[in-house]
Write a structure and sequence with these properties.
The chain is an alpha/beta fold. It contains ten helices and eight strands. It has an eight-stranded parallel sheet, sandwiched between helices. β1, α1 and β2 form a beta-alpha-beta unit. The longest helix has 21 residues. It binds zinc ion (ZN). The site of zinc ion has 5 residues, from loops. InterPro entries: Metal_Hydrolase, TatD-like, TatD/YcfH-like.
């Protein structure tokens, strides 16, 4: 059976000593993955991994905490990359008010996010959104700002008569009201190992329709139980599937099948 890790970073240096073994464990476990870029270097390395492995696809983008002064070089490369059939989306991009509390810098993050959304619109690709609030565990301003940016972007797409592709709110940490707004906009919600050790998102998993949930690891980060404290890897995505199955009171097979189908549909794989 195959299972899709919709958000991981197997190209990162944490795997430089044993990447082949880690990828083999994932392949043996039937794991397909979206290898997500966080800056120019990880975007390029992600594409290389995708080209070498038939169970890996890549996305390109800059994490809001990894934005260079000059983005023009990155954009030149991304324009070319987006014609490659193994490059299936834009991300991760977004807003991080936790590590960027200064409001002037948050305004810059918003401007850059809009540039990436326009790039996604130009190539008709889905976006992987990162949103983190200024206060840990709070559900304040970041999702309100993100949702309003996405609503404006959707209007722009409608006015240009282009098709709407939406995307995923990765590592979703908003409240039920935020979840409803993303779902209304056609977005998927991405859940990871946080579900295995924190209880505050259980109600959102129960609320979200199973056909709008994506599984992710965010490896090498956010190891699920029983691997907490260790480096995470895509093979552990099944632990997230088990938790979703438990919360939704569904058979594990059905959760894996449905979320794998969701990921294929969103990224047109
Ligand atoms: Zn990530």
């Amino acid at each position: 059976m195959s299972i899709f890790d919709s958000h991981c970073h197997p190209q990162m240096e944490q795997y430089d000593n044993d990447r082949d073994e880690m990828l083999k464990r994932a392949k043996d476990a039937g794991v397909f993955m979206i290898c997500v870029g966080t800056d120019l270097e990880t975007s390029k390395k992600g594409i290389e991994l995708a080209e070498k492995n038939d169970n890996i696809w890549a996305t390109v983008g800059h994490h809001p905490n990894d934005i260079p002064d000059d983005l023009s070089q990155s954009f030149m490369i991304y324009h070319k990359a987006l014609r490659n059939s193994k490059v299936v989306g834009i991300g991760e991009v977004g807003l991080d008010y936790y590590r960027t509390p200064e409001s002037e810098k948050q305004e810059i993050q918003k401007e850059i996010l809009v540039k990436f959304l326009d790039l996604a619109m130009e190539y008709n690709k889905p976006v992987i959104l990162h949103s983190r609030d200024s206060v840990k565990g709070s559900t304040g301003r970041v999702h309100a700002d993100m949702i309003s940016i996405i609503e404006n972007w959707k209007l722009k797409i409608e006015n240009s008569a282009r098709p709407w592709r939406a995307g995923v709110a990765h590592s979703f940490t908003g409240n039920i009201d935020d979840a409803r707004k993303y779902l209304d906009l056609g977005f998927y919600l991405g859940f990871n190992g946080i579900l295995t050790f924190a209880r505050q998102y259980d109600d959102i998993v129960k609320y979200a329709p199973i056909d709008r949930i994506l599984l992710e690891t965010d490896a090498p980060f956010l190891s699920p139980e029983p691997y907490r404290g260790k480096r995470n890897e895509p093979a552990h995505v099944v632990e997230v599937a088990k938790k979703v199955a438990e919360l939704k009171n569904e058979p594990l097979d059905r959760v894996i099948d449905q979320t794998t189908g969701n990921c294929r549909k969103l990224f047109q794989i």
